[in-house]
Specification:
By secondary structure, the protein is mainly beta. About 5% of the residues lie in helices and about 40% in strands. The protein contains 4 helices and 59 strands. Strands 6, 7, 8, 9 and 10 form a 5-stranded antiparallel β-sheet that branches. Strands 15, 16, 17, 18 and 19 form a 5-stranded antiparallel β-sheet that branches. Strands 53-59-58-55-56 form a 5-stranded mixed β-sheet, with no helix packed on it. The protein is elongated. It starts with a helix and ends with a helix. The N terminus is likely disordered.
Amino acid sequence: MNTKPIILLLLLVILPMSVFAAEATIDASIHTTLTSHNGSSPTSVFISDQVGYAFFRDSAGSCAYSKTTDGGGTWGAAVTVDAQTDCLKIAVWYDRWTPDDSTGTNIHIATLDTGDLWYTKLDTSNDTLTATVNASGANQGGGFVVGANIPSITKGTDGDLYMGVQDAGDSFVIKCLTSADCTQAVNWAEAGTNPFDLAIDWLILMPLSGGNILAIRSDISADDVQSKVYTDSSNTWDVAWTTIDVNAIENGTYDAHFGATIRKGTGDIYLAYATDVATFGTDDDIRTAVYSAGAWTSKTDVLTNDTKGITGVKISFDENTNEIYAVYTARTTPGTAVSGNVYWKKSADGMASWGSEQGPINTTAGDIYGARVNAMSDERIYATWDLASLDDLIGNTIADISPSDTTAPAAVSDLALSSPSNSAMTVSWTATGDDGSTGTATSYDLRYSTSAITSDNFSSATQVSGEPAPSSSGSAESMSVTGLSPSTTYFFAIKTSDEVPNTSAISNVPSLATTATPDTTAPAAVSDLAASSPTASSLAVSWTAPGDDNNIGTATSYDLRYSTAAITDGNFSSATQVSGEPAPLVAGASQSMTVTGLSANTTYYFALKTSDEVPNTSAISNVPSGTTSDGSSISIPVSASGGSRVDPTRVVFSGQAYPGATIEVLRKSAIDLIYKNTPIKTSEIKADGSFMITSTALLQGEYLFALLAKDKDGRKTGVVAFNVDLAANNILEAKDIFLPPTLDFGKTVIVLGKDLKILGYATPEKKIEIEIDGILKGEATSDANGFWSFATSTASFRTGNHYARARQIKENGKESEFSPSRAFRVSILLSPKSDLNNDDKITIADWSIFLFRWGSKDSMLRGKIDMNDDGNIDIRDLSIFLKTLKTL
């Protein structure tokens, strides 16, 4: 059961709709002159998710900064930037806010005193400050007032630094070339001719491409928002101002209530400004505009005709998602200064629309001045503000942004096709991850074509719809692709994407053909099923193979069942199912198997159904019966290669088998009344694989001798039998006996597409032929110790049961009998041992079977849930099964 939706629902019910981190006190004693904290440029920088800097005017009148190393949760002691006690205002610019700068470590700082504009920089790699220099003293004149003049600073795309301020006495922008030492006052000079009026207006400087600069001003006297461009190559400013808004009415108490940021990838500049705020709470607006390709475009208002009372707005850019944050302060009660709070909204479409209002993010309402936000970040957006009632600088996180993801999912390498019909087939693969092979990706793009797919033509292949959502890395994935044409070979390929999206390389490209036409014809019913060769615990069952379609072709599987009562079509499903049925041969072939595990002296009824690949299933076969023997003696089947009747007084058996193996001679005769299935002789085969066994002094009578070999790892071969009549004084010599090899699997359940390994022992240095499902699949050669192995891919195998057998061949071409057939299964599951009902699915049905076998007292039944093959059934097996179930 998937509990994730329930957990999410509970969280939505329990948690409040808006949850913000706790605000933090950055400095508990900033300057009491409230207007000294107003400004247009940023005063905070986050260089990573955890490390940030906040700049302010302290209680002594000096400009200072504090640093956080825990994402703004706590802040260190104030560090003085400019020790003069008439440091009126401060503004900063971080190297990496400038387009094309991804490695700079400096925060450039402008400080304003009563007469000049000063410069210093903080190197964040080691937190060292340069000496503060008077950048305007040699070039400019005039005086500045704490509650009126607003400095701004920026860095051009060519590395030049710019600072500016507007005043009735002297308005200017000064510049320091990137090639000069900007900590030397002499290297600062005016950028072009003064572009401004001699008036106290508010200023923002922003970088443009080509090393140019954009100056944005709020013209207080005209209620206009305007801009001019500085062209670096000619050292000139535009002659005329470009008007952004002709009706931007400001408020004189909360100066510089506008802000700007930049999108580094495009160079677009985003502007937000409060207007119609002369009287709070009547028709207050926050308007926006974007500067792109040399022109301004008005965008959607953050707020229109708001009734709170807007006192300021700043703007920030999320470099991961390209989302824009507008952070603003507003009085909840327009006429009450102490009712101010901090709010924010977000735009995901370049300010074409805005989300719902979030906040307040402050704990205590109050008269709030100088709310700022870092201009951009790819890890954290953080707001700061001055709470007048406490003279505190307060901060809180607006958005904790995930670092930029540039790692694509790994390419799928095991894409596989199976179960074709005339119009569909199954596609399966192993999930990769979000980052390489780690995590969970976001989406799949599965495509197919009737020609080979490459990375170049992938986009032109037909895209599949309805791909599953990716599971965690390593999970098995599959889907059925429908709508295909009959008798057509299709090539498939897949790509995986994460949330960015980063997209993987193309997968491997398997191909498979659909079937010709729908198969609705079932195999014919077997009509000659027969039971023979009874022993105390077995019966041989034989029949003639039907076909895939009636009596044509080759079917896919048999379902042989037995019961002590007559079997009908109505009770067939309740009869005992035999395991290990051979794979069907071509129609008309003779097939047989020995059914073991029966009770002595009991009559059994047998019935058989045959299925094709669809599966279409035949009607029930004829229902023969056979009776097992009473158990007083054994019955050893006579080999087709057994000798003719002879009359010896002794018997000698010799031939070749496997080095280090043991060979048993079993005997049955009418005079062995107390025979209990115990070998009369057991011998060890020599290092070269040869053996010779003699049995003498036998009583007269008819005998059946059987040879049964067991290799050094305990694997048994088939039985070789001889009929003997000891009525005369002749000698039986059975020479040149050539036993079939033993056969085993590395694993009996193989994941589709993985290698099947077959192994065993034979006579040293002999050729081994391996058949799978009646088809010769390959050859191997036994080594000097008789060991042989063979491996083949199962990528083209159908899922379900298969059968393998092997024989060995001498140098002279003599062939041994085939070994007994052994069954293995091919599964699409990555954990096939958990598929307890063999339906290629792991479901609650398998869990039910697991629990039943867990509680069973039958050791053989419990052994089928030994998930780690350690011979014990314990809590580790339960843990392995539950882990498999959990990944579904």
